[in-house]
Structure formats: structure tokens, C-alpha cells
Write a structure and sequence with these properties.
The protein is α+β, with helices and mostly antiparallel strands and 594 residues long. Helix content is 19%, strand content 32%. An 8-stranded parallel barrel has the order 25-26-27-28-29-30-31-32, surrounded by 5 helices. A 6-stranded antiparallel beta sheet has the order 3-2-4-10-7-8, with no helix packed on it. Strands 1-14-5-9 form a 4-stranded antiparallel beta sheet, with no helix packed on it. Helix 7 packs parallel to helix 8. It binds (2S,3S,4S,5R)-3,4,5-trihydroxy-6-oxo-oxane-2-carboxylic acid.
């Protein structure tokens, strides 16, 4: 599946805006065929946006079940004769789409795109009605998991991840026009030898009997640097300009599907020439040891929830630059494709994570509630869950494989990993990831409950990724002991001979709360906490990265451990710095200069 583009042969039309919207508390819409005509009793809803925070009532904010979106759109009149499609960048957590009354596609998974050929139901120049039924219910067979419990007051949705279950159509929706004979996919792998780069490409095509593929590589000034013929091939780039962290450089690879001398289809793929490898305790980018600085982030903003908005993305990247961060993790789900494009452009390194968060019933009873379940069992996370998880990994790799910024896959965040059941669940998933992408390291994020010697899943990973809260959830307020115990744990992990990235460490901090001497929750304590953690990292050479939890404060479910959400941000939810942000800036800017 290729992302929509405007090229000499392709067109796209964004159909965002105010759509009709209706909650379906009784789940009656499918039986009553709400897609078959104009949505009754509808109110307006913004696309893209999470629907939760736009209204003022609790029913909408906490709704789970089916919600219906509808709009009418005129298919551009110039699209006659082409193949007309629909591309939804994300609908959380699953969706079914109808064009007038024809069901055209269903998709499972809330953070990855899906597409449908709608040509047989539309005509160029005419209006059609699009209806999308989005469902945000979490179950033991969804990624992420959840459960619905019956209570005397009705049903309640429970889940084990620490961010609000925002839902809706979160990213743009496109109508697309592509040639019937067309390119359908492209995969790019780059290698470097001295000063020469090689761009290997493979393509997939549709209805292309008798047609040929031509690949044209251009540099950032638009100058042609190499060409190749054939559905797969290699382009050689002498004196290559590498894509480097902090110094991005992108080539443009144009794939042309040709009939003799005429171009039937043209697709542009941006290419950053770089290599990624793990060598002993080192994480290498372009053969050089790389040290990750940055954050676990969230797609989370006031009012719009998890919607992708260019302006908000831009502010986040400006702050990453200001603070001296070179990387982030897409905790805890795949982010918007625009975010990855922009990371490619800005030279920011990305750890790309699936939405497999909360596969751990032993964790967080006090925070999330809903205890009394076994994580892996025939009744809970089971073979079906594993298949859904595997599909999710394949779809993530398919979407993001060509981004130079993506250097490492994280297939889960803090799952149960100390049991035999966890080992059995995860072993094949690492194989799935490696088969989908043999070029990048694969890991998962380990939780504090499964320390070195107990974790049974890290054996499959290329990199050790650790979330640790010494000085916050354990040894609260005791930073000397935290530093010592953290260092000891890191030294134990270092015996694995793999690079270690600290993917989370952090302390909740109320902006504006000051205390001398420093106490937990104050801005001073967050600074001291970071300093103590950093001393532990600096003492262990196998540590090759530090990503603070979190970039910014974010929304969560209600709980006695959360004050208006999770407050571990270095920045507030409206993206202003706490004292810790200034401290991180000092450290990371100095590291950059070294
Ligand atoms: C974690 C989770 C993250 C939470 C964080 C916290 O370990 O990975 O999703 O938000 O802890 O603040 O408790």
C-alpha cells in the first residue's frame, strides 16, 4: 500500500472538516443501517480529532462502543478512467466504511492506515456519501488490550495503559486517484561503502503486464544522480551525502511505471542513505556509536486529544531542537505518518513502537484498577491476540520501513516478560518483526517487575530497553539509594553484552511547585532526580541512550496517582518548560558539542 501523493499520474483530495457524528450507545446502527441514508440526530464532529474532549458531557468523553461519522464528498470530475480509492490514516481502534450503502473496508488497529478501492461505487464529478463506523472498545483480543466489566451501574471499560483512551478519526482521510496500471509498493534499503552509497529498491505493481519500471534518483537539488531499470534494482551514489542524526539529507527516488517511452505511473519515495547496526554494546548509525537523548512522547493535546495537527507537531519538534534531543520513541503506538516524515527531514532518530501496551495484568493495580486477571491465558491474551499483534507488527513495518529516521522497532511496552507464557507469546513475534524487516534491530521495552535474571523475553531482543523509576515509584525521595541501586541493576544488564537504552525514567512534577530542600512533585526534585539517574547512566558504558518519561504532561484515566493526568513531562501539556527542561538542555546540548 502506498501513501497518497500528488504526482504527474496521481491525485489526492483531503476530505477533513466537520462531519456528521452520532454516538451509538445501544449498538443499533449496523442493524438499523445508519449508513443507508443521512445520519439522523447527528451533531458535528471535527475530522481529524478525538471526539472525547470536544463536547462538555461525560457521556461523550468516556464513551465506548460504536460512533458514526458521515460526510458527503464530490469526486473530482477529472478522475474519470482512473482507479479511485479511499485512504484513512487512522481510526481508533477499528472501523468499517460504507460508500453510499456499500461496505468497502473494515480495519482493526487504531494507529495504522487502511485503504479501499471504491471505484465501482463512485463516478467522477458526482457526490457520494461516506459513512465510517468507528469502534473504540478494547478487549483481550485487541492491541492494546482492555476489558469491559459489568457493574451495578452498567458496563465499564478497563485498560492497563497509562494514557486516556482517546478515539475517533485522528488523522486525515483522503480520496485518491491512481492509474489502473500502477505501482503498489516500494521498499528501499541503503548501504554505504567508503564514500559510495547504494540504494536497493524493490517494487510491487498492479495490472502492469508488459510494462517496465524505471528508477530515477535525484539529490536534494533535483539533480539526477543515478537511474536503474527493472522492478527491483540497485542505484549507486558516488560521494554520497549521508542521512545523519541532526544533519538530515534526503534524496528523491522516483519510480516510474513505463509503457515504452511514456510514464503510466509515477511515485516519489524520499530516501535517506544511512546504515543501522548493533555491534556488541554499541548502537551504530553509519558505523558510528550513537547515544540516544530525548523522550518517550505521546500524541496528546488539549481539546484535540490524539489528532495530528501540523502546527502542534512543529512546536514539538522545535522544543526537541531547543532542548538538544536527538531522538524519541513513539510511545505507545505508531504516530502519524507526517511525524515520521518530519523526523526524516529534521534528522531526529525514532524508536518506532507498536500499540502493544498494557499486556501486563500484574502492573499498576493502584493506578489503573481492574486486577484479578492473568495476562496470558486462553481467556485473556491468547493465540488470537498474538495473531492480531503479529498483523500489527507487519502493518507497522509495511508503513514505516522506508523512513531513515526509524532505527529500531519496539514490539511492546512493558508486557509481562518474566513468565514462560510470556516467552512463548513473544518468541514468534520477534521472528515476525525480523522477517518483515531484516535490516533494523528489534526490541521491546522491559518493565521493572522483570529485572535482570528474571526477564525471559530480552533474550530475543537486539537491544535492552528499560523503563525504570528509581526515586519515584521505588525509593521515593531517596536519591542516593536510587542512584546506587539503578547503577547496580544496569551493571547486571550490561553482562548481556547488548546496548542498553533507558526508554523511561521520570518523576511527576506539578509545574510551579517549588521546595527547598527538594521533595517529590516539586520542580526541584525533578531536576535532582534526573541528575541522580544521569550519574547512574554515565557510570555504565553499555548505556547508549536516555529517553525521559515524558516529553510533556498528558491525559490519563482518573486515579489517585494522577493529578489532571500524568505530570512527568519536562514540558507542560501546553508545551512550556519546567525547570527540568532547562537542566536537560544543559546536559544534552553539552553532549552534542562533545
Ligand atoms: C510506565 C509506562 C508509561 C507510564 C509511566 C508512568 O512505565 O510505560 O506508559 O505513563 O510508566 O508514568 O507511570
Amino acid at each position: 500500500m502506498l501513501r497518497p501523493q500528488d504526482t504527474t499520474t496521481r491525485e489526492r483530495r483531503k476530505i477533513d472538516g466537520l462531519w456528521d457524528f452520532r454516538l451509538d450507545a445501544d449498538g443499533a446502527g449496523r442493524d438499523q443501517r445508519w449508513f443507508a441514508g443521512p445520519l439522523q440526530d447527528a451533531r458535528k464532529m471535527a475530522v481529524p480529532a478525538s471526539f472525547n474532549d470536544l463536547m462538555t458531557d461525560k457521556e461523550t468523553r468516556d464513551f465506548f462502543g460504536d460512533v458514526w461519522y458521515q460526510t458527503t464528498v464530490r469526486v473530482p470530475r477529472g478522475w474519470d478512467g482512473s482507479s479511485i480509492g479511499l485512504y484513512v490514516e487512522s481510526a481508533t481502534h477499528r472501523a468499517t466504511v460504507w460508500v453510499d450503502e456499500h461496505e468497502v473496508v473494515s480495519h482493526e488497529g487504531g494507529y495504522l492506515p487502511f485503504a479501499a478501492d471504491i471505484g465501482e461505487h463512485v463516478r467522477a464529478g458526482e457526490e457520494v456519501r461516506l459513512t465510517v463506523c468507528v469502534n473504540n472498545t478494547l478487549s483481550f483480543q485487541s492491541i492494546p488490550p482492555g476489558v469491559i466489566e459489568d457493574t451495578p451501574d452498567g458496563k465499564r471499560q478497563i485498560y492497563w495503559h497509562d494514557f486516556f483512551n482517546y478515539a475517533g478519526i485522528h488523522r486525515p482521510v483522503w480520496l485518491t486517484s491512481v492509474p489502473t496500471a500502477r505501482l503498489d509498493d516500494v521498499t528501499v534499503v541503503t548501504t554505504v561503502e567508503d564514500t559510495t552509497g547504494t540504494v536497493e529498491y524493490t517494487t510491487e505493481v498492479v495490472d502492469a503486464a508488459g510494462l517496465t519500471v524505471r528508477a530515477v534518483l535525484r539529490d536534494a537539488d533535483g539533480q539526477q544522480v543515478a537511474t536503474a531499470e527493472g522492478p527491483a534494482g540497485a542505484l549507486t551514489v558516488p560521494d554520497v551525502t549521508l542521512w545523519r542524526p541532526g544533519a538530515a539529507y534526503l534524496y528523491d527516488l522516483e519510480l516510474q511505471l513505463r509503457e515504452g517511452e511514456s510514464t503510466v505511473d509515477s511515485y516519489h519515495q524520499r530516501v535517506g542513505v544511512r546504515t543501522v547496526a548493533v555491534d556488541g554494546e554499541q548502537f551504530l548509525i553509519n558505523g558510528e556509536p550513537f547515544y540516544f537523548t530525548g523522550f518517550g512522547m505521546h500524541e496528546d493535546h488539549v481539546t484535540v486529544g490524539k489528532a495530528h495537527i501540523d502546527a502542534l507537531m512543529l512546536r514539538d519538534f522545535e522544543l526537541l531542537e531547543w532542548i538538544g534531543a536527538n531522538s524519541f520513541r513513539t510511545s505507545h503506538y505508531p504516530y502519524s505518518e507526517d511525524v515520521l516524515d518530519y523526523a526524516d527531514e529534521r534528522g531526529i532518530v525514532v524508536i518506532d513502537e507498536t500499540a502493544a501496551v498494557g499486556l501486563n495484568m500484574g502492573l499498576g493495580g493502584g493506578i489503573f484498577g481492574g486486577q484479578g486477571y492473568t495476562t496470558f491465558s486462553p481467556e485473556t491474551a491468547n493465540d488470537v491476540t498474538q495473531q492480531v499483534h503479529a498483523d500489527h507488527i507487519r502493518e507497522l513495518v509495511a508503513r514505516d520501513k522506508n523512513h531513515p529516521s526509524v532505527v529500531l522497532w519496539s514490539i511492546a511496552n512493558e508486557p509481562e516478560s518474566e513468565t514462560e507464557a510470556a516467552e512463548d507469546y513473544f518468541r514468534p513475534l520477534f521472528d515476525v518483526a525480523r522477517e518483515a524487516d531484516p535490516t533494523r534491530p528489534v526490541g521491546f521495552v522491559n518493565v521493572m517487575l522483570a529485572p535482570h535474571g528474571k526477564c525471559r523475553v530480552t533474550q530475543f531482543a537486539d537491544v535492552v530497553m528499560l523503563n525504570r523509576y528509581y526515586g519515584w515509584y521505588v525509593l521515593t525521595g531517596d536519591l542516593p539509594a536510587s542512584e546506587r541501586q539503578f547503577r547496580e541493576e544496569l551493571e547486571a544488564w550490561a553482562t548481556e553484552g547488548k546496548p542498553i537504552i533507558i526508554t523511561e525514567y521520570g518523576a511527576d512534577t506539578m509545574p510551579g511547585l517549588h521546595q527547598l530542600p527538594a521533595e517529590p512533585w516539586s520542580e526541584e526534585y525533578q531536576v535532582d532526580y534526573l541528575d541522580a539517574n544521569h550519574r547512574a547512566f554515565d557510570a555504565v558504558p553499555a548505556v547508549v541512550g536516555e529517553q525521559v518519561w515524558n516529553f510533556a504532561d498528558f491525559a490519563t484515566t482518573s486515579g489517585i496517582m494522577r493529578v489532571g493526568g500524568n505530570k512527568k513531562g519536562a514540558f507542560t501539556r501546553d508545551r512550556q518548560p519546567k525547570a527540568a527542561a532547562h537542566r536537560l538542555r544543559e546536559r544534552w546540548q553539552a553532549m552534542k558539542e562533545d
